[in-house]
Design goal:
- The chain is mostly beta strands and 1218 residues long.
- It folds into 6 domains: 10-155, Jelly Rolls (Sandwich), CATH 2.60.120.260; 180-224 and 240-286, Jelly Rolls (Sandwich), CATH 2.60.120.200; 303-473, Jelly Rolls (Sandwich), CATH 2.60.120; 561-718, Sandwich (Jelly Rolls), CATH 2.60.120.1000; 724-886, Jelly Rolls, CATH 2.60.120; 921-946 and 966-1127, Jelly Rolls (Sandwich).
- It has 10 helices and 78 strands.
- Strand 53 (769-776) and strand 54 form a beta hairpin.
- The radius of gyration is 37 Å and the shape is globular.
- 42% of the residues are buried.
- Residues 160-304, 303-476, 723-888, 949-1130 form the Laminin G domain.
Length: 1218
């Protein structure tokens, strides 16, 4: 039972007696802790510790448990003594302390800058406590520590029950059974044990609720009406909802369960899990309760914290017993995978015993005198899991025994008796004493016992026993950096004492927090990157929450089509359906409803074909006008229009085209003829696509039958790519809602300008801000402040960026790092402070193209602006903003794809040209295959000018704060060969790493593609066989290989994903070779000697096109050509191959439909169809001529609009952009 006053901000320390104030030391009597009350001026006017005090602190006893909401500090009155930052610890007993952390994990409190000003810090979450301890961290460098304090809050009362592990508290409801649809259960608990049941209740129909501690976390089991026997009720198949961490720290924790029907919120402290219960019921029925076995026993275990991985240690004397034997016992907990736990000098000299935690296990026992024998223990058990683990080390007779957590011990036999001498070092030792190369231990220890005598850590702290360095007493200052999990998109979080890392494997995302999608957002984007038709994963919202989905990208036409198939692509025959018992077919797509919505919304146009073949099966022909058949859109709403017509009108395509077989009806099938006919149409209203279900209700009469077919969803265009705005006044800007970017944000866009500087976008908060700008003609700057001071990243180009050409910018900031990418220039990275502020708190609107002050505005064009995967509609917002216009004038500013395959469109005064230098293709528009014929002795070697990893990460203003880019390769090539085996492509480094692709025999399937990745020279290479097909078949094959870290993606007909054994980068890339190489590896020597006989084309490695470079720069020192090399055109059939294969599937489906229809169609009906077709063609010819006239008018109007825009820009901007 809790009591919370409305106003909980009263002073709590001002009326306390002298005895409530204590300190680690005091300079003299006039500087004692009692004089540390706020605004006090008597004696020395505040508290100051002794200069020799290593760990100073000031403690306040509130006399009873209070709810504390704020603290305030002053320096010592009229002096140069004040504390500029401090830690705040709290405790119920004054012995076991917990460090207060702010909402974002920050530990420091801001203190004073002079001796008189009062600085108040409000607690982001109040604490219920009796004792507070102020621990100074920094103080006035020209003075000393001085403190006066006040505590604000209110009284707090609660009823407390103490459990010893055997007791329970039983609550009986007034009635025998109680059923509820809404529950709120709240309690507070503390324990030193990691296991135990807090709450349990169950009902006779199978309902149950259990709340328990497990491994220091809180597990909730909740079931509503899922029937099972009593044994399965407690089976291992039950899956709990888990929240919290390190809850066995002997401090109070708040738990609350809120349930409404099947929706449940489980909250522990400030962390909440939302979930839906199992079972079929909506209410919880409980009629009896089990025992509460949760334990909170009285003994209070005092711990100490080892803070430093280099210098922490605890030195304790070893008083050996008379027998000469010795024993050491202690408990520890940590997140680190290794660290020195104990070091002991042994007699007779020079023996020494070192106990080290290594590779996630306590497994090394070094005994140098015995040739460093190693004891392995606890195999299969991690001990860096943040839980307490007990270690027992004993020397008896001629044996040393090591045991962890009571498991069977590991032993080492000795040649002679030994005993400990000198001091025992825990957690590390001074450099003069340690001779083992191991990092110091970072974590907590407690219950240290030497020769069965428990060590009093308070005596150590007071200097009465042993010695120590970089230790914190009376607290286990552990922090779970994976709570909450800051890894995105379901990535797994792991941690050490000082940092956390994210495992992005299998997520489809990359980056420090798995924020960046490794897939393009659309088929249009794949086309622009130089890809060809095939199956691809697209991520329609980029770094947003939706995730990737697989689609087919058809790039054989001028338009790039995205094709999503469903589970019922074959024609379906329907009989015996009626309005009362209709035939229902649901369509399931390889994408979620949200993904489908994002794909359709982002496309310029979508369509889906519906074919309905009928015989005496009507669609709408009823007396009351209600439809007999219909379909459901993606929202599940009923639609009764069939192809090509406007929504809401019950008509078919033949009515629109005025060619229905009976003009008295709006659909062919509504004529109800005893002969086969069909209604075929294209659904193209985007808001209703795709079709999710079809209902057929008129095939139950004699001779009645229907065959329908719903085609794949097909969309083309990407509205985001060319969504642009032009800024031609420095004071103009576009504004959007505040960025939602507290923990992570990515911003990407293209710009072109002739102005020397300008702000692309800016969003501000009270103190925080984020800004991307062109700070000079060659420098793009990304700056932000989350409370740790301004952070700035800059990328400098060797060429001007205000050259009136499009340039790409991508800026990202997350809790681990920030990055800035400009075009293909080296990525700049800036690591975030380990324990700094995390959240970017913004409050103003987002300004694009300018600032709130209307100064330093951008003059030029911005397009394709995306933030966290969401596209900003610049064109629509520009329509209502003065000084800004929709679109961007110029040849290179539309979606016409003038340049292909990574070609860059460059504006000229009287047209444009395509820069194909970054493309593996050639020609005027970068769409011509660059192909070369090889024979057995031919090879092309491209030597990099400097080590490639250095070239990628070099910066003219390098700083240690910037890290190198992560491992990433992107390769693409096409080949035709009948040779077997064959050597295709090899990449080698100066450090003996290599990547190679070959054709080699793989079982009975002929010669398949093999991809070898050798990233770690001490391991065997990873070898992948992406397809079982024989590729030495004389046909053209396209290969694309993309790697991010450990994730390897291979496109060969379909998209496949593999996992490498290492995420190492290629270090110091030396060369790339096509064709024959001289290999020293026995398993590749035979294939390498065979070389390659055939044709290679369109070879690309990252941003290098080696094959094209060989043809255009034959005299270059970077290119080495051996053997005959003949330019060819073997890649000319690349697009047609995939196109023909995809079309053949559609033709097969149509052939089935045609067979069904043809078998039952009468000759007279066929003749009528021919006549109708001729009439339709005549009408269409007339309509087409009218449409041509309309198109000419539209083109002329567009030309006049663009001309007018050019003129207005020229008059107002004076050539700031084209």
């Amino acid at each position: 039972m809790f009591c919370f006053p409305d106003n909980c901000n009263g002073p709590l320390a001002s009326a306390l007696p002298h005895s409530s104030f204590q300190s680690s030391s005091q300079s003299s009597a006039g500087y004692s802790a009692f004089y540390a009350k706020l605004n006090r001026r008597d004696e020395a006017g505040g508290w100051s510790p002794m200069v020799t005090d290593q760990d100073p602190w000031l403690q306040v006893d509130l006399r009873e448990q209070m709810e504390v909401t704020a603290v305030a500090t002053q320096g010592r009155y009229d002096s140069s003594d004040w504390v500029s930052s401090y830690l705040l610890l709290y405790s119920d007993t004054g012995r076991i302390w917990k460090q207060y952390r702010h909402e974002d994990g920050l530990e420091r409190f801001d203190g004073n800058v002079n001796s008189e000003t009062v600085v108040q810090n409000k607690l982001s979450h109040p604490v219920k406590t009796r004792f507070l301890r102020f621990v100074p961290l920094d103080w006035n460098p020209s003075g000393w520590m001085g403190l006066r304090v006040e505590v604000f809050g209110c009284s707090y009362k609660s009823y407390v029950a103490d459990f010893d592990g055997r007791s329970s508290l039983l609550y009986r409801f007034n009635q025998k059974s109680m059923s509820t649809v809404k529950d709120v259960i709240s309690l507070r608990f503390k324990s030193h044990q990691a296991e135990g049941v807090l709450l349990h209740g169950e009902g006779q129909r199978g309902d149950y609720i259990t709340l328990e501690l497990h491994r220091g976390r809180l597990d909730l089991y909740l079931n509503l009406g899922e029937l099972h026997d009593s044994r399965s009720r407690f089976s291992s198949r039950r899956v709990p909802v888990t929240v919290g961490s390190l809850l066995d720290d002997q401090h109070w924790h708040s738990a609350q369960i809120e349930r409404f029907n099947r929706q449940v919120n489980l909250t522990v402290d400030a962390h909440t899990q939302h979930f839906q219960t199992k079972g079929e019921g909506q209410s919880l029925e409980v009629d009896y309760e089990g025992n509460v076995t949760f334990s909170c026993s009285p003994p209070q275990l005092v711990a100490c914290t080892f803070l430093s991985s280099t210098s922490s240690f605890l030195s304790l004397p070893s008083a050996a017993p008379a027998t000469g034997e010795f024993t050491v016992r202690f408990q520890f907990r940590t997140w680190n995978p290794d660290g020195l736990l104990l070091s002991v000098q042994l007699n007779p000299s020079p023996q020494k015993l070192d106990l080290e935690g290594k590779l996630n296990y306590v497994n090394n026992l070094y005994y140098p005198y015995l040739l460093k024998l190693i004891i392995l223990c606890c195999l299969g058990r991690r001990v860096n899991d943040g839980l307490w683990h007990a270690v027992s080390l004993a020397s008896r007779s001629l044996q040393i025994t090591l045991s962890v957590d009571g498991e069977p011990s590991s032993d080492v036999e000795l040649w002679e008796p030994v005993e400990s001498r000198g001091s025992l070092y825990f957690g590390g030792c001074p450099p003069t004493e340690c001779h083992i190369q191991a990092p110091a231990f970072q974590g907590c220890m407690q219950l240290i016992s030497i020769n069965n005598h428990l060590v009093n850590l308070s005596h150590v702290q007071q200097g009465l026993l042993g010695n120590y360095n970089e230790l914190q007493f009376d607290t286990c200052n552990m922090k779970d950096r994976c709570l909450p999990n800051l890894c995105e998109h379901g990535a797994r979080c792991s941690q050490t004492w000082s940092s956390f890392s994210c495992d992005c494997s299998g997520t489809g995302y990359s980056g420090a927090t798995c924020h960046n999608s490794i897939h393009e957002s659309s088929c249009e984007a794949y086309k622009l990157s130089g890809s060809s038709s095939g199956f691809y994963f697209i991520d329609p919202d980029g770094s947003g929450p939706l995730g990737p989905t697989q689609v087919y990208c058809n790039m054989t036409e001028k338009k790039v089509w995205t094709v999503l198939s469903h589970n019922n692509s074959a024609p379906v025959k329907v009989q015996n359906s009626s309005p009362q018992r209709p035939h229902v077919m649901k369509f399931s797509y390889n994408a979620s409803a949200d993904q489908l919505r994002a794909i359709v919304t982002g496309a310029e146009q979508c369509q889906q074909e519906v074919v309905y073949n009928c015989r005496k099966s009507r669609l709408f022909n009823t007396k009351d006008g209600s439809p007999l058949s219909w379909w459901l859109d993606r929202q599940g709403d009923k639609r009764s229009y069939w192809g090509g017509f406007l929504p809401g009108v019950q008509q078919c395509s033949c009515s629109l085209e005025e060619n229905c077989m009976d003009m008295n009806y709006f659909c062919n099938c509504d004529a109800d003829a005893d002969a086969w006919t069909n209604d075929t149409g294209i659904l193209s209203y985007k808001d209703h696509l795709p079709v999710s279900q079809i209902v057929i209700g008129d095939t139950n009469r004699t001779g009645s039958q229907a065959v329908y077919h719903v085609g794949s969803l097909r969309c083309y265009g990407d509205k985001s790519i060319w969504n642009a705005a032009s800024f031609y006044q420095e004071s103009s800007y576009l504004y959007f809602p505040t960025l939602q970017a507290e923990l992570a944000s990515d911003i990407s866009f293209y710009f072109k300008t002739s102005s020397p500087s300008g702000v692309f976008l800016e969003n501000q908060g009270l103190k925080d801000f984020i800004r991307v700008e062109l700070s000079s003609p060659t420098v793009v700057t990304f700056s932000f402040d989350v409370g740790n001071g301004p952070a700035v990243l800059s990328v400098k180009s060797h060429l001007p960026l205000n050259d009136r050409q499009w340039h790409y910018v991508r800026a990202e900031r997350n809790v681990k790092e920030a990055s800035l990418q400009v075009d293909q220039l080296p990525l700049r990275l800036l690591q975030a402070p380990a324990d700094g502020h995390l959240r970017l708190r913004l409050s103003s609107q987002l300004f694009v193209g300018g600032t709130a002050s209307q100064q330093r505005g951008f003059l030029g064009c911005i397009r394709s602006l995306m933030v966290n995967g969401m596209t900003f509609d610049l064109e629509e917002r520009a329509k209502m903003t003065p000084g800004v216009s929709s679109g961007c004038p110029g040849y290179c500013s539309g979606s016409s794809n003038l340049c292909h395959n990574r070609g860059r469109c460059i504006e000229k005064s009287n047209g444009y040209i395509c820069d194909c230098s970054q493309s593996a293709y050639g020609g005027a528009t970068c769409n011509q295959e660059v192909s070369v014929s090889f024979d057995r002795d031919s090879s092309v070697t491209y030597t990099f000018q400097e080590p490639f990893s250095v070239m990628q990460n070099r910066s003219s203003q390098a700083s240690s704060a910037f890290a190198e880019s992560r491992a990433r390769e992107d390769m693409a090539f096409s080949f035709v060969t009948s040779q077997r085996p064959a050597m295709l492509l090899t990449i080698s480094t100066f450090t003996q790493q290599y990547i190679t692709t070959i054709l080699a025999r793989n079982g009975k399937n002929g010669y398949n593609l093999q991809i070898w990745y050798h990233l770690q020279t001490d391991r065997s290479p990873d070898v992948f066989n992406p397809t079982p097909k024989n590729l030495a078949d004389g046909r053209l094959h396209r290969i694309r290989i993309h790697r991010v870290g450990k994730n390897l993606y291979i496109d060969q007909d379909i998209h496949r994903k593999y996992t490498l054994s290492s995420d190492a980068e290629l270090i110091l890339i030396r060369s790339l070779t096509l064709g024959k190489v001289i290999s020293k590896l026995s398993n590749l020597r035979r294939t390498a000697s065979k070389g390659f006989v055939g044709c290679l084309s369109s070879v690309q490695f990252n941003h290098v096109a080696p094959l094209k470079a060989a043809l255009t720069n034959r005299g270059s020192s970077l290119i080495t050509i051996r053997g005959p090399l003949v330019q060819s055109n073997c890649g000319a059939l690349a697009e047609s191959t995939s196109h023909d294969q995809h079309d053949s599937n559609a033709q097969k489906d149509l052939a089935v439909i045609a067979g069904v229809v043809t078998a039952v169609v009468f000759i007279a009906v066929c003749a009528l169809a021919v006549i109708s077709r001729l009439l339709y063609q005549q009408r269409r010819a007339k309509r087409s001529s009218g449409m041509k006239e309309e198109h000419r008018h539209s083109t002329y109007t567009d030309y006049r609009t663009e001309l007018h825009l050019h003129n207005s820009v020229r008059d107002n901007v004076k050539e700031y952009y084209i």
